Amino acid sequence: MTAVGFDEPGGADVLKPETIDVPEPSEDEVLVRVAYAGVNRPDVIQRQGLYPPPRGASPIPGLEISGEVVALGSNVPREMLGQQVCALVTGGGYAEYCTAHARHCLTLPRKMALEEAAALPETLFTVWHNVFERGWAKAGETLLVHGGTSGIGTMAIMLGKAFDLTVVTTAGSDEKCEAARRVGADLAINYKELDFVEEIKSFTHGKGVDVVLDMVSGDYVARNIACLKTEGRHVTIAVLGGPKAEINMAQVMTKRLTLTGSTLRARSDNFKALLADEIAENAWPLFENGRIRPVMDEIFPLERAADAHARMEAGEHIGKIVLRVASR
């Protein structure tokens, strides 16, 4: 089969098509003929040599796929054969075939486009776990999402609104702020022009927000804490602004804040299976009935994965970048 990988870390141009063996599913896995694969920031960081795959995972990039189940492991129910699914995977998505744990797959409704399905698992699993499980967000609360026009950001806005949250977001241009408002954000702040701490203080009448979903870290953490109300929750999922933060722990104590964070890729199969079950019960119906659809940016053919990475690194995309794998 054809896959896109790299021999040595580097810029986007190190990504090259190669011919490798089709993987075989283990007893709990399915083999998916990949139609589309989502492109995510962790793919870029892996290509740069800063985010190695977990032990036993494919070295080929790609953490989410859509396609048809064409082979089954011995423990997988026979009815999965031939199903169209999207799946969260630990690697291997940039290829014509990819294995996925059977319980990390979500079955597609007939009307869902495969390209949209490939844009869902990584952001959906990440947002659900971190906003609703680690951040304990509930109806009537206010959520601050940084990077509101990224794949994670757009998903967080849409899920937040679907579960009756007020959603505030930041973005780097007036155009992106307008895009975030179209997705559903109640307030979108151009962080290059305005102080988001002061804007949030005004918007919430000095009360602050209940939950922050932070992808920046670095010097944003202290500013996020200033935005949080008493009993607020700060959830870190990326460190694009640097891994170290200097904060005033007296504020953490007096506000009784919770500071937490997580990564998803290296979590156990059982953890991700339980997360998939919760998503299937609580969030997946919103996608099955079309109430939520992913915000799509651009679709590149698999052999142009380097161009897809370059677009992500340029930071101009709005929503999800996807690779078309199967020939049409």
Give a description of the structure.
The protein has 328 residues and is of the alpha/beta class. It folds into two domains: 179 residues, Quinone Oxidoreductase, Chain A, domain 1; 136 residues, Rossmann fold (3-Layer(aba) Sandwich), CATH 3.40.50. Helix content is 30%, strand content 26%. The protein is built from eleven helices and 15 strands. Strands 3, 4, 5, 6, 7, 14 and 15 form a seven-stranded mixed beta sheet that branches. The protein has a six-stranded parallel beta sheet with strand order 10-9-8-11-12-13, with helices on both faces. Strand 11, helix 7 and strand 12 form a beta-alpha-beta unit. The longest helix is centred in the middle third of the chain and has 14 residues.
Topology:
Blueprint: E1 2-5, E2 16-19, E3 29-39, H1 41-47, E4 64-72, E5 84-88, E6 97-101, E7 105-107, H2 114-117, H3 121-134, E8 142-145, H4 151-162, E9 166-171, H5 174-183, E10 187-190, H6 196-203, E11 209-214, H7 220-227, E12 228-236, H8 249-255, E13 258-261, H9 269-282, H10 284-288, E14 296-301, H11 305-314, E15 320-324
Parallel strand pairs: 8-9, 8-11, 9-10, 11-12, 12-13, 14-15
Antiparallel strand pairs: 1-2, 3-4, 3-6, 3-15, 4-5, 5-7
Keywords: NADP, Oxidoreductase
Domain Enoyl reductase (ER): 10-323
Protein name: Zinc-binding dehydrogenase
